[in-house]
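Z., the sequence and structure:
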Amino acid sequence: MGVRTWLVAMTLIVVFVLIYNVFSGILSTVEPVMQAYINETVTSQNSTIGQQALTTLGYVDNAWTYWIILLIFGLIMWAFISASRREAQYEAVE
């Protein structure tokens, strides 16, 4: 049970890191364009909605940075706890 648990955990970690890298590339090309568009809207219309959009974009950037770290830590903890679990030993009653 222990080796299988660690193999599943490592496979999931590799898959999530690959997904993170692919979507980080997409986000790094889209984010500057979005920020420029929002900044242009804020300066031309002096809107508070644009400021809130920039704040939300900052929150999304922070969440995108840290979700992978939390996920990897959670998978490692799950694998450690699952691998160290012991099966109950029952004695036969005669």
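Residues 2-83 form one domain. The mean pLDDT is 84.

Let me know what you think.
H.
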